[in-house]
Design goal:
The chain is an alpha+beta fold. The chain is built from 16 helices and eleven strands. Helix 1 crosses helix 4 and helix 12 crosses helix 16.
Length: 424
């Protein structure tokens, strides 16, 4: 595999993806820490504060000017959920040294600037800068409140929230408005220091990377200051509650179109089951030839959008539909028929062939995008299971119809969430 993992310190790893497919080098720092209600809003706020300035580049203007000097390098950051972990992500992309007009080591400079932003923040009186904290708290508040703007995404998030109520995965990755008032420059900086000293740290470098990259990082002052650690993060994900009867939840809002989301629990939980689950999802709702698309949308005309997605880290399938509000029960009935058809094996060998082709095309596309390849290897790092692309393809290819049927019969509906209109 073209991803070489190097341990810099205990709990801190460098991953070098050597590739000559791109004219850019992409660098990333991933900070992985457990998802919990106490810290989810702080985690979401930290990248927003760090991007405002470091000790070396003290404000956005200085950072922007520095990026311009680096031939228009690009910086981005954010947060995501991976299993029951919160991942703080920082990216910097710059031109490969081979394509520069003059001989210089832009990769080294990119590493230096990125690590400075993440690990050497601007601090005043042993706290973050108050102006930056207050400004970014307001920005984060607007992000959280803006959750309802995309109704389809909102319904999906709400289904997950209800399905994983009082569990880590049910938390909104950007946190909660009510938490913001208790965050100040002092306590956020104290939390940042604790988090940085305990979290799992993965540094990725993708591009034409020479052997000196490791030494550059080892010599970097920010890396030298980091302590070794037994990283604190969740290696296993907590399952949704095992319920006897599906939960049905309805929420009213000023909408003209209903949003229906079903959260399905996959009973099979062994490593091999994920390949059957990928094919199950593709046939059910993951492709344009799927049962959801062909039957719920095209044949019955019950949905504007009808699809499904599989979350491997949680072993869940989510069905998502945009429907006319008065069609709720009919749409739900037709969706349940598709789920039952999967259990009965009412799908063809051609369906399996098309599903496999779609999944393998996705696998083959991974190394064509630097960020996709990076996230593939990061996912393997978190799951502690490395796999070559050809092995991944082979595991998909060898899945038999009966395995998909067996998996389908382990699946049950956990939560049905419906976003509907206000009563007139």
């Amino acid at each position: 595999m073209n991803c070489n993992k190097i341990n810099l310190k205990e709990g801190i790893n460098l991953h070098i993806i050597n590739t000559n497919k791109f004219k850019t080098n992409l660098l990333a720092v991933f900070l992985t820490t457990p998802l919990n209600k106490e810290n989810v809003t702080k985690n979401a706020l930290i990248p927003m504060v760090l991007r405002r300035g470091s000790k070396q580049l003290t404000n956005i203007e200085e950072i922007s000017n520095k990026l311009d000097e680096m031939y228009g390098a690009d910086f981005n950051c954010g947060v995501d959920k991976t299993g029951d972990n919160h991942v703080l992500k920082f990216y910097m992309e710059s031109i490969n040294n081979n394509f520069l007009p003059e001989k210089e080591n832009l990769l080294e400079e990119t590493m230096k600037v990125l690590l400075d932003i993440v690990f050497n923040p601007l601090v005043e009186n042993n706290s973050f800068k108050n102006e930056y904290i207050e400004s970014e708290k307001e920005n984060l508040k607007q992000v959280i409140l803006g959750k309802i703007d995309n109704k389809s995404k909102y319904a999906y998030e709400r289904c997950i929230e209800e399905m994983y109520k009082d569990k880590p995965f049910g938390l909104y990755k950007y946190g909660y408005v009510e938490d913001l008032e208790n965050i100040n420059p002092e306590n956020l900086y104290e939390y940042y220091k604790t988090m940085i000293s305990e979290c799992k740290i993965d540094i990725f470098v993708s591009g034409e990377v020479d052997e000196g990259a490791k030494q550059i990082l080892m010599d970097n002052e920010n890396i030298k200051r980091l302590n070794e650690r037994q990283p604190i993060y969740n290696k296993k994900s907590e399952r949704a509650d095992n319920i006897e009867k599906e939960r049905i939840l309805e929420e009213k809002m000023d909408v003209s179109q209903g949003k229906l989301v079903l959260g399905l629990e996959v009973g099979k939980n062994d490593k091999e089951a994920k390949y059957s689950a990928l094919i199950y999802n593709a046939i059910l709702g993951g492709t344009p030839t799927s049962k959801m698309f062909q039957n719920v949308r095209e044949k019955e005309h019950l949905a504007y959008v009808a699809s499904s997605n599989y979350i491997r880290h949680k072993n869940n399938v989510f069905i998502r539909c945009g429907i006319e509000i008065e069609d709720y029960q009919k749409a739900l009935d037709v969706i349940k028929i598709q789920i039952e058809d999967m259990k009965k094996g009412n799908f063809t060998d051609e369906d399996i062939k098309n599903a496999k082709s779609s999944i393998i095309a996705m696998i083959k596309s991974i190394p064509e995008e630097q960020d996709s390849e990076m996230m593939y290897h990061f996912g393997q790092e978190i799951s502690e299971h490395k796999m070559e692309y050809d092995e991944y393809e082979a595991n998909v290819q060898k899945v038999q119809k009966q395995e998909v049927i067996d998996l389908a019969n382990s699946i049950k509906i956990n939560t049905i969430y419906f976003l509907t209109a206000l009563e007139k």
